[in-house]
Give the backbone structure.
Amino acid sequence: MGSVSNFRKSLARGALGAVSGLLAGYAALAVAELVASLVRPQAGPVTVVGGAAIDRTPAAVKDFAIRTFGENDKLVLQLGILATLGLLGIVLGIVSLRYRRAGAAGVLLFGVIGAAASLTRPDSGGVADALPSVAGALAGAAILYFLAGKLTSGPTSAESGTDGWSRRGFLVAASVTGLAATGAGALGRTLTGRRGQGAVASRTAVELPAPASPAQPLPKGVQLKAEGISAFTTPNKDFYRVDTALVVPKVDADTWRLRIRGKGVTRPRTYTFQELLERPLIERDITLTCVSNEVGGPYIGHARWLGVRLADLLRECGVKPPSRGGKADQLVARSVDGMTLGSPVEDVMDGRDAILAVGMNGEPLPFEHGFPVRMLVPGLYGYVSACKWIEDIELTTFDSYDAYWVKRKWARKAPIKTQARIDTPKPFARPAAGTVTVAGVAWAQHRGIRRVEVRIDDGPWQDADLAPQATVDTWRQWSYPWKTTPGGHNLTVRATDGTGEVQTEQRTRTIPDGASGWHSVFVTAG
Ligand SMILES: Nc1nc2c(c(=O)[nH]1)N[C@H]1C(S)=C(S)[C@@H](COP(=O)(O)O)O[C@H]1N2
Ligand SMILES: [Mo]
């Protein structure tokens, strides 16, 4: 009998070891969360390790993640980190049954990794940022050491068959640990939530002034009636979001500052939010697009933005564009979370409506979209222009500095490519026989859309009906009444931009400077 029951007992003990490892990991994260809430919420170990992982992910993998998980990519990353930590916790818990010190040391090692990640984040707040990881690891190591002790020592050992005390002792210790950790974690969350309240209050208090230069009213008919077509103006809550921030920065507008400095800046300056609001504001319709948008993809949105003309601020600081003898050809925008985006100074100052936006569709910017201030340059992909949570503008050259995505093999310069998307019918739809409205959007920001054509299978290109164009900086809707014939068909669309250039058929990937190629959908008509 002995060997079977011994086996069972060591299995049970192993399971309890695993539970101690999990509990120690849980407690470590909870303590770290609590300490992070006191130090800086962005310094939590999952956030810093996740951030470090994002920064080190090869462009192709990141592209795959965006393609596969879409805007849930960051959630998937964090769950992945938690699952990995859970597994390692289990392993360390089992190890600690035999090698108690080694188990605890293993937990400490993770603290070191977390601390290292926290110190190398671009937005690192200095040594204090290591505290959450260090404190969490110390707590986790101590708890594992203690729980492993409950399983291995005591008046009886698990093998002896009379392990009543140690098991009950373990269960009590484990429950207390679990409860205390949950309490610490919850307290941390609450404190972190409170911290953001100043920023939330500052946003609520913003009263957007009327624009000195209002947007032209949208021409009647920019929004086609076709069912399933995108809204011309994307509501803020539906606006796509792409950024590397695992925790959305909550910036207090009252303490926010924007610095302008660097090469050729003869009068470096710092602006407050209030100072920006007191300037003459412009209001403009601008369609924003992400370079990671696949042909036919969702990473495009349109909004009416309110803000100050960036070129005016730059001129005030003495900046000249290269064509007027300016020394800097690159404007590097930096955000509070350490992101850098580089735009051509020439584009920003060539008369287009490059804007430091404070308002989006009549509201202060949502936190997700860059409150209190973000940059936008019509005609350029977001990663080379649309800095959210901006706090610093540095004039420099493309030769001397590569911004975040450029370091990761994306192009230095990235004007938006001409694209058209079929919004309706959806791929693999089965429309009834008759006339089906094929409709969608086309964009070539800052060049405008002149023509959109639709092709059924390998038939001739047919002109689509165009909605009026709001401005060259906005997308444009189109529709085409298709008289169906029974069976499967490929519907393809292509656009011609305002310069007369027809959108290329050549399919490219999103890396390095945006996807090209025609969008088509396959449908089966009744
Ligand atoms: N601070 C910061 N700004 C950023 C980014 C970022 O990761 N961090 N991503 C850029 C990219 S790639 C795009 S496409 C746009 C997206 O803006 P949205 O999230 O408001 O749609 O923001 C840009 N600004
Ligand atoms: Mo992007």
